[in-house]
Specification:
The chain is mainly alpha-helical. Helices cover 75% and strands 0% of the residues.
Amino acid sequence: MEPVLLLVVVNLSVLAFTYTNGFHDAANAIATVVGTRVLSPRQAVTLGAITNFLGALCGVAVATTIGADLIDSRLITTSTVLCAMLAGIGWNVLTWYFGLPSSSSHALFGGLIGAALATARNNWKVVQWTAFYHKMVIPMLASPLIGFVGGMLVMTLLFVIIRSMRPRLVDRVFGRLQLLSASYMGWSHGFADGQKTMGIMALACYVATKNGDLRQLPHWLDFLSCPKFEIKPWVQGSCGLAMAMGTYIGGWRIIQTLGRKMVRLRPIHGFAAETTAATLLLVTGKLGLPISTTHTITTAIMGVGCARRFNALNWELAERILWGWVMTIPVTALLAYGLICFAHALGWAR
């Protein structure tokens, strides 16, 4: 495949992944507001699409971490990025089909690691392990715990505040407040997850430029040239738009899992979970730490549900979700590794 055409295909695959991230992780961002029946599904995805798009335009710290800090760009090619994206898309579609709120972020990381290792002929130095440990592993392990404990603490505080209020008044007040918390959650989802694919798209353009693949680039495609790693406005806009479109399509299977099956939610529970998760995403996004939106909101919902009693949570379903989380990075890494090996065998990969 011609290098310029390959880069175009890679960028389209990144947008396709971003789109699946939108319909996959949109459910995580809007499940609570649907589960509490504050908004209809269509109203919720419209709100989510708008706030996702706005959030995606508000920062590049996470994008820089993903694109510049985790993988040694000298040892990979544009084919690496393409196979990583294909592995992530496959996992997103599979888990969406079964209604499991797995992490699109971790699917992205797993695919990128597997494809990079295969491209570098098992040279483990292609992954910058120190940065990976500090910016990926520690936040990946800590964020679910913080989400769970934070959701429980926020819900406990709200129980103290509302103890003398009538249930109907509580539902009315927090039904209105949940419109704010749902918007906050949607914005934070765009702010955190939208940046991840921006980093991958910028990485693909940078690698193609550095490797000399764009020497015969047509004038009308000059915007693809990236002599130094940077997140250009067209990258931000296209990824934000792709995520917003995916969000509008919605992910009803996962909404059912998070909003109605895992724990019974009322508006106050939705407000507590969304506020907890969105704040954690905002703080880590500012620090450039790419944590999982899925893990954050799911564990926040678990914490909120357990604030009154632990048996309020559907533990069998929680176990299924946990296994999906554990399997995401290994499965996508192996899939991307296999795709690179297959492409090399057929002479397709550069």
